[in-house]
Amino acid sequence: MFQIMVAEDDRSTARLMRAVLSHAGYEVVLAENGLKALEILDSHHVDLIVMDIMMPGMDGYTLTETLRNSGNNVPILMLTAKQLPADKRKGFLAGTDDYMTKPVDEEEFLLRIKALLRRAGIVHEHCLRIGKVTLDYDALSVTREGETQTLPPKEFYLLYKLLSYPGKIFTRIQLMDEIWGMESETVDTTVNVHINRLRKRVEKYPEFEITAIRGIGYKAVLK
Question: Mapping DSSP to helix (H, G, I), strand (E, B) and coil, where does residue 186 land?
Fold first, then answer.
């Protein structure tokens, strides 16, 4: 499931966007301004950002420029009440991928998001990239600098889940439900065994590590 960040300081607008996106099948994380968005991006994988321009602390233009200057090419859709051509030019010069004026048409909003994801290659490639590491969901493979490992399905799904949300702690029960299914009779020790095998496979990768949170579960930590 794709994760979309909504950077919007107006709470009612943010809640509406979250409802629309959640109904369309996306996971949504909210940020009330640009500074909070940067904080979240330090520890979370996001597939696309929907952002307002006029936000306190750090506006949308500055946030976009900051991300692009740091090499972050996450697709960005700017939403704003500003309708002048000069405002749109400023947005595109800052590095946004698309631009809509408020109030937005919900159907067009969702179509533009799908187009941005497709344009970014996320939908077709079904890949996740962390530094020099590429996870290919369809091939169940992990590649780094030309060396490819094909993982057993459960190990791959665990790794893909953890790396999709770096810094987020997943309980063993959450991972069991996600990977093995809620009806499975798998016990949580099975998760431990698979995680231990997975750690050995990726222990030489400098981009990340899988960390155990005692008594709770696991998370992926980017280095």
Answer: coil
